């Protein structure tokens, strides 16, 4: 059986809105054997649980603030967000950079076989067996994710990284370059989804991909909220956008589940 670390990060104002629920659900429903590394902006925002660690992302990764300072008023970001092809958030490199540096730092501290990132607006609604984690992050793959070819970028609310693969070191070094060297400017979008895909394509073979949205679950590749319409929905929900208000993505469900969370 593989070993696992799970990580996430959140801004101070988001603790009471959704992050506290996410962290509590991890405490309640993830195996104690899974290492938990959390990166709150406010280090006092904590929930005690076994095998956990709360870390200061800005202290550990000073390049994050350097990136933010350098790019907050970047003219290309302003230009694309003013006239987006689809949604302006796809060009908000600064807003989504915290997630990337969270994963970069967690990778540096990871002492387990697999590193898992979950967005802080996810909720784990029932206990996860360690065997399911072993299945969802296969030892023969490098990264598990949710591809969205119709949108042109992956869903990054849940990503796994096989730290035992030789590609891991190359991938994280390359991902860091997209931020420290501002290589993001060469991409069609600037968020973590675009840079994750770019770094993965740059450094790993497609045989090492584990795309949970490849049609194995629905019978086709879904483009609307693939998170809950994949195997992830058997244990978790991703409360994106207005879903936070109703605390469920039930309206997006294309599969029938009997768990109370979906009723």
Would you give an account of this structure?
About 35% of the residues lie in helices and about 15% in strands. It has about 260 residues and is of the alpha/beta class. The chain has a seven-stranded mixed β-sheet, with helices on one face. Strands 5-9 form a two-stranded antiparallel ribbon. The chain is globular, with a radius of gyration of 17 Å.
Report, as a whole number of angstroms, the end-to-end distance: 33 Å
**Per DSSP, what share of the residues sits in E-state strands of 2 or more residues?**
15-25%
What string gives the helices and strands in order?
Answer: EHEEHHHHEEHEEHHEEH
Strand order of the largest sheet: 3-2-1-4-7-6-8
Mean pLDDT over the full residue set: 93
- The coarse overall form would be globular
Helix content: 25-40%
Largest sheet: 7 strands, mixed
- What structural class results from the helix and strand content? alpha/beta
Rg from C-alpha positions?
17 Å
Ranges where pLDDT stays below 50 over 5 or more residues in a row are none
SS field, number of helical segments: 9
Number of strands: 9
